[in-house]
Design brief:
Elements lengths: L3 E6 L1 E4 L31 H15 L17 E7 L4 E4 L8 E31 L8 H4 E12 L3 E16 L7 E2 L3 E13 L4 E8 L1 E4 L7 E7 L4 E7 L8 E9 L2 E3 L3 E23 L13 E16 L4 E3 L4 E9 L10 E2 L5 E18 L7 E15 L11 H4 L28 H13 L1
Parallel strand pairs: 4-11
Antiparallel strand pairs: 1-2, 1-17, 3-5, 5-6, 5-7, 5-9, 8-9, 9-10, 12-13, 13-14, 14-19, 15-16, 16-17, 16-21, 18-19, 20-21, 21-22
């Protein structure tokens, strides 16, 4: 779909101005060469082959081989690797209510030289947003924007390390409002850990580790009920849908159509359902901002081009399977819908940079009108009138929670959960407080000592 020029500050807002840059042409990848259908060359004799070989040597001179020498990697005094100890990063609940997920692991610095001095050692958690339709096609800054989420300073002072493996733990609680990792048709959002160790000689040892962040929204206790009215008819549809749906697995849709019968003095008109079609649409939106060099193309700073793409990720035609009751005046419809896993559906996402993914369930029904006398209701006559009833519902596509535990449930007690003071204890009894004869007290002490 064509793009739209818009100005955004923090979150993208639509602008009424248009630009010639709305249509961005994409370059198709080169196709593979077609298979040859010509017959193979004829087999030549050994003598002809040897004579031609000598002739080529005499005319062409020394024969050079086309094989390239293997590339030798430069020597590194150390190598970096990483071990992730925390479970998969899964945010529970919506971005407004999620507390995030814990990321923890260990950085391994394997020193290969006898000794090396590390002046600085740090790691960053970066978020990279990539648009597939940048303002300038050949500009890397227009296509990719990187922001820092968290930074670890592992070593602050120079440290001399001997040969061997050295491990450094790290951990952080990722905020729950971050959007999940998304690979869409118009934009991509990725997260990765980038570690850099700088030696005393100025050599940098780097490591780039990609992490995957997902979000799971827990289903509500009750299903979602919606009512749709189709004027100018008296038809009303009541639809029951689950609160959340998943990329794998089906979900049930229950619908009741009421008002299908209109009675008169000696006859009645009724609507009969002939065909039902449902489909699930995935709508992706993104904003392509311009870098500092190409802001003049859009007329100033804080502007970008909005892009939108819609695709159908599931559909089905249903011609039978519902129950029609003209005496009660309703039609009961029930069917199972599911995402097509071959289309790689993307879960719902909402980001501040203008990227969003949402899903819509579209239901279309074809109904035809019939006329029947009250004395012969089993002999209806088609009137030739038909209508197409179309309605849509928003779907919340999310990942399954699985066996994971929310950070709210696994975190230790907070200070505000601890009472203000420790519990009180009874005052100890001393000899001075005991009035009267001490014989009874001696008997009690002797009894305790015998019992022990």
């Amino acid at each position: 779909m064509p793009g739209r020029l818009l100005a955004f500050v923090g979150r993208a807002t639509q602008s009424s101005s248009s630009s010639k840059l709305d249509h961005i042409n994409t370059i198709n990848p080169p196709l593979l060469p077609p298979y040859s259908v010509s017959p193979p060359p004829r087999q030549r004799s050994i003598e002809q082959s040897s004579m031609e070989h000598l002739k080529r040597h005499s005319l062409g001179g020394r024969h050079h081989s086309d094989k390239k020498s293997p590339r030798v990697e430069p020597h590194k005094p150390a190598k970096l690797s990483m071990i992730i100890e925390s479970p998969p990063l899964l945010f529970y609940a919506s971005p407004q209510n999620s507390t995030g997920a814990l990321l923890s692991g260990r950085l391994k610095l394997d020193v290969t030289d006898p000794a090396v001095t590390v002046d600085a050692f740090e790691m960053q958690l970066l978020a990279t947003a990539t648009t597939k339709k940048p303002v300038a096609k050949e500009c890397r800054e227009c296509a990719t924007q990187t922001s820092e989420i968290h930074k670890w300073t592992i070593l602050t002072d120079p440290v001399a390390l001997k040969k061997g493996e050295h491990q450094y733990p790290f951990s952080s609680l990722l905020p729950g409002h971050l959007p999940a990792t998304t690979h869409g048709s118009v934009a991509l959002l990725d997260y990765h850990l980038f570690a850099t160790a700088t030696t005393s000689t100025g050599e940098k040892i780097t490591l780039n580790h990609v992490i995957d962040i997902k979000r799971a929204i827990l289903p509500p206790t009750t299903d979602k009920h919606s009512v749709r009215i189709f004027p100018p008819t008296n038809l009303t549809a009541t639809v029951k849908l689950p609160g959340v749906v998943y990329p794998i697995g089906d979900f049930k849709v229950e619908m009741r159509i009421q008002g299908i019968v209109t009675k008169k003095t000696d006859s009645q008109t009724q609507w009969r359902l002939r065909k039902l079609q449902w489909k699930i649409e995935e709508i992706q939106k993104s904003v392509s901002p311009a870098c500092a060099k190409h802001t003049s193309r859009l007329g100033g700073d804080n502007k970008g081009i909005a892009h939108e793409d819609m695709r159908v990720i599931a559909h089905e035609d249903i011609k039978t399977g519902w129950k029609t009751d003209f005496s009660a005046g309703n039609i009961e419809v029930e069917f199972n819908a599911a995402m097509d896993p071959r289309r790689n559906p993307i879960c719902n996402v909402e980001s501040e940079n203008g990227m969003s993914v949402r899903h819509i369930l579209v239901i279309e029904m074809v109904v035809s009108e019939e006329w029947a006398p009250l004395k012969k209701l089993n002999q209806p006559t088609p009137t030739g009138s038909a209508r197409v009833l179309r309605t849509q519902f928003n779907l919340l596509l999310t990942e399954r929670g699985g066996m994971g535990i929310s950070w709210d449930e696994e975190q230790p007690p907070m200070y505000e959960d601890v009472p203000a003071s420790p519990p009180g204890y009874a005052a100890p009894v001393t000899v001075e407080d005991y009035s009267g004869d001490l014989t009874e007290l001696d008997h009690e002490v002797e009894r305790l000592s015998l019992g022990s």
